[in-house]
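Quick one, T. Sequence first:
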Amino acid sequence: MPFRLKKVSKEPKMDSVEEQREESDTWGKPIQKALQKCKELEINFLALDFDQTILEIHTGGHWKGTARELLPHVRPMFRHLIPAALDKGIHVAVVTFSGQIDTIRYILDQVTDRAAEIPIRGGFGGHKTFNYEGSGSLAGKQAHMASAAEELEARNKGLRLKRASTVLIDDDKTNIRHALENGVRAIWLDPQNPLQLLKDMQRLV
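Structure tokens:
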């Protein structure tokens, strides 16, 4: 029987209002500066990896616990970056080799009230959870990004997502290399120093 998640009420982002305010103060300015740089460069699409990027752990696509149990492993930075990007008019997609789409959707639902606007493209090789029939590169996350871009363009009349207006954020250097080779901006997220991401976003050219 296929796995189905029960709908549950949203969980609090923080343990208290005071902690939530402190976390907002910590991330607010660096995230706004990073996103402002994106706007200046006419970047309108962030493609985010899931395992060891949005999450601080790597599930290998085989998370055996509940989706709720995975929630504490979301990096606080992405709890703020994802909704802030959407508020800035920057589209977001999750591009991952994991096929656990229901689990990923649950996580996004807890991070933002606009999770329905975020396409998820998962799987790899012959086990992708989506079909891509375009003529672009299939290496790394290229097909994932192209397929997500097609969905977003179909939903938003007049929207144009191009390689030059896209940024891939991923902890896998091979995926980063394939993106750069195909004209897509890409930033490697160092799992040992994830906060460097926002600085690197501000240095995009």
